[in-house]
Fold this sequence. Notes:
Elements: H1 3-18, E1 24-25, H2 26-33, H3 37-49, E2 53-60, E3 63-70, H4 84-87, H5 106-115
Antiparallel strand pairs: 1-3, 2-3
Helix pairs in contact: 2-3
Amino acid sequence: MSLKSHDLEEKATQTIFEAGNEGIFQSELWKRLGLNSRDGSRIAQRLEERGFIERRKVLHEGRWTYKLFSKQKKVDLKSILDTPCIQCDDIDKCMIEGEKSPINCGQLDQWINLNSY
């Protein structure tokens, strides 16, 4: 893959990520990157094959097209503020193979189960 192609894929990935949960039409992506439809489609297909994005076929203005969605999600710091780890007295002893471990922590398991969606 050429450097130019790699740069375009990075820009495409970032543009799709920035579109958030709404996604972006494949044709809009081409326009933003200054590509023709063939090159834009190829980039979208490569990103999908590599697991970076999801392409969903949608009917838009009477025509079938693809809408692109990032598989990476934005992280909100609020999502971890109430983890038991932040207030745990044993945090300095907690490591994968330590005296305490996040792998077998009942408090962390309970928090994850309550906050999974």
